[in-house]
Amino acid sequence: MKIIIAGAGNVGTHLAKLLSREKQDIILMDDDEEKLSALSANFDLLTVTASPSSISGLKEVGVKEADLFIAVTPDESRNMTACMLATNLGAKKTVARIDNYEYLLPKNKEFFRKLGVDSLIYPEMLAAKEIVSSMRMSWVRQWWEFCGGALILIGTKMREKAEILNIPLHQLGAPDIPYHVVAIKRGTETIIPRGDDVIKLHDIVYFTTTRKYIPYIRKIAGKEDYADVRNVMIMGGSRIAVRTAQYVPDYMQVKIVDNDINRCNRLTELLDDKTMIINGDGRDMDLLIEEGLKNTEAFVALTDNSETNILACLAAKRMGVEKTVAEVENIDYIGMAESLDIGTVINKKMIAASHIYQMMLDADVSNVKCLTFANADVAEFTVPAGAKITKNLIKDLGLPKGTTIGGMIRNGEGVLVTGDTLIRPGDHVVVFCLSMMIKKIEKFFN
Fold it and tell me: Is residue 328 part of a domain?
């Protein structure tokens, strides 16, 4: 597959590194030679110094043979122009990074498709949705819904009160167990578990379950004493902060702290009266305490500095805040944030890359998610008639090691699977696998 990525910024570079490991034919283009110089030596990809919005530049990188053209420069209008030109020159599919929510409205998406922009991606909006999902319950690290919530993924950290520690998984109440343990993050290792694996103290455990069993998961994880989130304090008035404040449920009260008075004035215009805007330094603990930090269930750090966000969340934890969320854009710091027990970590690059990766798959995939802490991915496949996965019971399919089926949705109902389950055409199947293995799973769904 020939993939051209326009823009060697954070998202473009991360995506290029990710896809180069898959032995795809990757070309990364940018008009800043300095940004490209370090990459071609260390990764299996071709870098070309050319402008993504120049016809001659696009011809130089062979855009007419491109299966996928991805424009992720910081300039939205440039991305749109590059995609239109790329389609006109013969690219099969195009994706543009945007920062205007209006473009995503259904009537506008169709308009852009006609112009040659097949797909739009707004990383800040995706990040905000993920923050709000993780804040719905203070005891949850990651929360992801499939098919409108028919099946739910919950990632949570095991503390001393957990009831399921040190017991082999096959002894945890099978076959009537109302959940499936799909992945375990232990230290730096990610485990797709088998029946004889055990859950240990401080593991982050990823469960799939149905909505009615969430209280049961909470009980066995020993998290019943965690307060529900009603008050949220956000440090930093970024675009993600604005979207987060707009997406939170009505019962949550939000305060945003930012030290730039002009930005605070702008936030006041953008957000309604239920969001309180505070002009001040979010690193000043006295200010935060004065503004009610000790009565806050969730603290979200969204400044443009990863170190500041990590340290602010650490300080909030020490003040007794149960739920902290840090935006950590430096991928090297994500492991450190986890070892410091920050809580939920948000990384725009990884979220955007998951969505773009989905477009590379031939099978019918409606959801791909990268588990930020774990070196694992989750994908939701729709099963076509005649697919290989329908030919045998799950235990006889010969799924690759490092993969597991977390559950499925049949006729709108979430169903947990066992080795004796037979998957049928039309089912939505949720698959977990170690990073970069989705392509190996895909053949079972074609």
Answer: yes
